[in-house]
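TOPIC: backbone geometry
CONTENTS: sequence, structure tokens:
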Amino acid sequence: MSSWKRDAGSGLIVLAPLLVTAYIVAWMFLKIAGLPFLVKLPNYTILGGFITIPGSLIRVGIVLTVFSMLVLSVGYLMRTTVGGIVENAIDGAMNQLPGLRIVYNASKMAAETALSDTNQLQKPVKIETWNGMRMTAFKTGKTTDDGRELLFLPTAPNITTGFVVEVEPDQFTETDESVEDALTRVLSAGFGENSESGIPINVTEEGKDNTKTPPPTQ
């Protein structure tokens, strides 16, 4: 690969996620600012008119504040006995709706997967499946009644699906890598870079002679 292609690729790797994130933030800001309530909220001036706060920014701030308080209130309620009863009642009611129950359950599973703490995945391990092939799995910290380890074996690049396997302690190998490095490898389908530099390799660029001339002997 020529130098300009490599530089362009490196630039896109850095800028593309930033542009996508900025677009999503701007889209959400415009959607929240365009909600039907508080539309006529005027601009607010402070310091004798020296600083003007746009009404759209105030609307977004109010909506986010109310939504954050609602999320915290519902989260606190869910930690109580009443919250568990309410959640079961909501799940039962939504599961009675044909068609919509699929959307509800899929959304709930996606939210639980995305918002769950990755620290619950205790440690990456390697499982040898067949013919010397190894797969990446994670300890869950749980064991069966007969002493087997419960491991989560995710699929790549979608880690929201996978398998829960029961394995004897001597049938998997623990690794020294972190959970973040293992998840990066799985999410990137093996193309992601770990925190370690890895094994250096010799790369020959097109149009260049990389052969080294040995130093003269004394």
Remarks:
- The first strand starts at residue 44 and ends at 46.
- Confidence is low (pLDDT under 50) at residues 196-208.
- Residues 92 and 151 are 30 Å apart (CA to CA).
- The helical segments are 3-33, 55-78, 81-94, 100-115, 179-187.
